[in-house]
Amino acid sequence: MAARIISGTEIAAQIREELKKEIAELKDKHGVVPGLVTILAGKNPASVSYVTGKQKTAHELGFYSIQDDQPEDISEAELLKLIDKYNKDQKIHGILVQLPLPKHIDEKKVLNAVDPDKDVDGFHPVNVGRLMIGGDEVKFLPCTPAGIQELILRSGFETSGAEVVVVGRSNIVGKPIANIMLQKGRGANATVTVVLLCPAALDQ
Fold first, then answer.
1. 24 pLDDT more than 80
2. 8-119: what fold?
């Protein structure tokens, strides 16, 4: 099979249009407005750009959306208290804590504090376990791996029985996409090999 470029821009536009219709139906039929909060601690330029883009898209799609900006020196206790507030907020269905966090905050403790059923990044250990099990157990998939699978599906590539190579073993992309491609079902059911980026990666 000849290689071809997959246009993420075109597929993303298709998905946005589909989501607009789904969200409108949720509002009309059930009176439900999807709620998302993005929590940003500090002013890391890449993180600011990233959460701003997420918020812009959420508003365009019709979400109830909050961007909660916090100072770089927010304490770990204050951040955990903030997450607890949104865990209990019935208007909020998804919580996204933007990484990386300031160095004085325990990232694992913060991610584990998010209600697994609101953990839209899929980083909580409960959701990692759900991903391993697959099927109906899965609530949220990590966004980049989920996007990769969606690009494959919508481009018509057959993955069942295919040899798939995943470069890198990060918790955010490498490990999740490897597990996704191992599952039974469309856009998966593959034989997966994970390779490291370079010898230096052995220390990571």
1. yes
2. Rossmann fold (3.40.50)
